[in-house]
């Protein structure tokens, strides 16, 4: 019998990454040579250092200087402004978070462009208030998994707080994007000339834009933002992490859970469940979501909280087991799926869909200036991306966290049914994860810090040769609409 334990976090040790982003790639002349980076940092301590000294007697001022120099290098490394174009097939359907688009059809292509531009894009930032316990004012070079986790949570919050099918208003007014999609007429409901109808539409649009801006502000790089980098780093201390460390997809899942719990005054009627040992226990989710009726109220059953379900998994040994690709596709086709945080080895990405054998993703590896979210009408453009990126399934790191959202108890029941069906499609003897009746051993949420440091997920295959090695290149495919 296979023993399934918590997937190991294979993202915890720092490595040097090549710059890459959805909208930004390397400079036209190419990256600086590798030895330039090594020579510039070999005397400065570990990449991604938070300013702590390698030598216990090293002066604190020298530690700060090391941190500033490494941060400055990373800001340059991840701040190239060279645009790349998106290449998609017109003949194959493109799937993104439960919706399918045929890009040869002008209306569907425009719908995809608007839907993609509506997703929140959270990237490296520089120049934010200093993180507690460090001298860091940027996360360039080390915070990519936290940024991917922010994007996953943001998608759940947009579904939680905004009406179905909502799109960002400004996404409707971009005349041309990097998919070379020409401006087309509005796809929204036709508004009559009657002033009353127009005023109602204008009012609803105004309300949704206020909510949209509020959600963006929650992810600002400021200590007061409930899901900003400052708060996430603080939540990670209980898992032994600090600013400047690398974070894995499993640890980030628990950080997001704790951040939502701490922000209950800001985000009401929402909870986060993190799966244990590759299993979602239904009774544990029900216990989290059921709320006792308030005194004096009557009803057939307790009120129900909406839930974001995060499932840390490992889809193979050192590389992705190709037999799981069909199952990953099936999960991304579900409307309840809010994306996958993972990426290439040591290079986190936020996966939102696929086309053929390519994953569609948002990339946080682009360093932008910090936006002051405490100001009224702060600019929103840098929190949205119009340039999709893709990587091959074969280059996907096997360690990842899959996210789902259910607004009501009925939606949770439908989620369980749909996800179970999607999981059963795997040709492997053991599915990616399971949805099980009953409770976990601890009856609820296990803290990542409580897991054994060397825990392993045992994934059995009929043919171990299928866990074949793939190209370890760190470059990403670039593409234009053909």
UniProtKB/TrEMBL annotation:
Function: Cysteine protease that plays a key role in autophagy by mediating both proteolytic activation and delipidation of ATG8 family proteins.
Family classification: Belongs to the peptidase C54 family.
Species whose genome carries this gene: Salmo salar (Atlantic salmon)
Ranges of residues in domain Peptidase C54 catalytic: 111-417
Pfam family, one: Peptidase_C54
Subcellular location(s) per record: Cytoplasm
Regions of compositional bias (Polar residues) in chain numbering: 10-24, 40-51
Enzyme's top EC category: hydrolase
Keywords, sorted A to Z: Autophagy, Cytoplasm, Hydrolase, Protease, Protein transport, Thiol protease, Transport
GO biological process: aggrephagy; autophagosome assembly; mitophagy; piecemeal microautophagy of the nucleus; protein processing; protein transport
EC number: 3.4.22.-
Catalytic reaction(s) noted: [protein]-C-terminal L-amino acid-glycyl-phosphatidylethanolamide + H2O = [protein]-C-terminal L-amino acid-glycine + a 1,2-diacyl-sn-glycero-3-phosphoethanolamine; [protein]-C-terminal L-amino acid-glycyl-phosphatidylserine + H2O = [protein]-C-terminal L-amino acid-glycine + a 1,2-diacyl-sn-glycero-3-phospho-L-serine
Main location group: cytoplasm
UniProt protein name: Cysteine protease
Residues covered by region (Disordered): 1-64
GN (gene name): LOC106607042
Gene Ontology molecular function: any one: protein-phosphatidylethanolamide deconjugating activity
Gene Ontology CC terms: cytoplasm
Biological classification of the source: Eukaryota, Metazoa, Chordata, Craniata, Vertebrata
């Amino acid at each position: 019998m296979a023993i399934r334990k918590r997937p190991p976090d294979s993202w915890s040790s720092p490595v040097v990454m090549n710059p890459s982003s959805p909208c930004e790639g390397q400079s036209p002349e190419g990256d600086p040579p590798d030895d330039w980076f090594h020579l510039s940092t070999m005397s400065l301590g570990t990449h991604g250092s938070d300013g702590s000294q390698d030598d216990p007697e090293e002066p604190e001022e020298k530690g700060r200087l090391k941190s500033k120099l490494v941060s400055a290098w990373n800001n340059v490394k991840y701040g190239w402004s060279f645009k790349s174009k998106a290449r998609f097939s017109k003949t194959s359907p493109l799937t993104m978070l439960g919706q399918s688009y045929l890009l040869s059809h002008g209306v569907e292509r425009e719908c995809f462009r608007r839907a993609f531009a509506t997703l929140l894009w959270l990237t490296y930032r520089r120049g934010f208030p200093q993180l507690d316990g460090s001298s860091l004012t940027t996360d360039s070079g080390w915070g990519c998994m936290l940024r991917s986790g922010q994007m996953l949570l943001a998608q759940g919050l947009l579904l939680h707080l905004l009406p179905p099918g909502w799109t960002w208003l400004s996404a409707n007014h971009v005349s041309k994007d990097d998919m070379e999609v020409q401006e087309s007429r509005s796809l929204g409901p036709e508004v009559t000339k009657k002033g009353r109808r127009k005023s109602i539409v204008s009012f609803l649009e105004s309300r949704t834009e206020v909510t949209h801006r509020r959600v963006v502000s929650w992810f600002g790089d400021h200590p007061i933002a409930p899901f900003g980098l400052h708060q996430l780093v603080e939540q990670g201390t209980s898992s032994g992490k600090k600013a400047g460390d690398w974070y894995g997809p499993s640890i980030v899942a628990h950080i997001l859970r704790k951040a939502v719990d701490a922000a209950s005054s800001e985000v009401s009627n929402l909870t986060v469940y993190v799966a244990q040992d590759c299993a979602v226990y239904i009774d544990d989710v029900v216990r989290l979501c059921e709320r006792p009726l308030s005194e004096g109220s009557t009803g057939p059953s307790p009120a129900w909280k909406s839930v974001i379900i995060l499932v840390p998994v490992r889809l193979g040994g050192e590389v992705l087991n190709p037999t799981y690709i069909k199952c990953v596709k099936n999960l991304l086709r579900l409307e309840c799926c809010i994306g996958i945080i993972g990426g290439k080895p040591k290079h986190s990405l936020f996966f939102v869909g696929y086309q053929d054998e390519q994953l569609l993703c948002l990339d946080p590896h682009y360093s932008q200036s910090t936006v002051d979210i405490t100001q009224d009408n702060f600019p929103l453009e840098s929190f949205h991306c119009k340039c999709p990126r893709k990587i091959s399934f074969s280059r996907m790191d096997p360690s990842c966290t899959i996210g789902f959202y259910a607004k009501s108890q009925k939606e949770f029941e439908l989620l369980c049914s749909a996800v179970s069906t999607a999981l059963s499609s795997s040709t492997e003897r053991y599915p990616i994860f399971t949805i099980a009746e009953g409770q976990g051993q601890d009856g609820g949420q296990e803290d990542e810090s409580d897991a054994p440091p060397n825990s392993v997920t045992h994934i059995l295959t009929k043919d171990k040769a299928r866990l074949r090695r793939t190209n370890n290149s760190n470059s990403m495919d670039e593409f234009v609409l053909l």
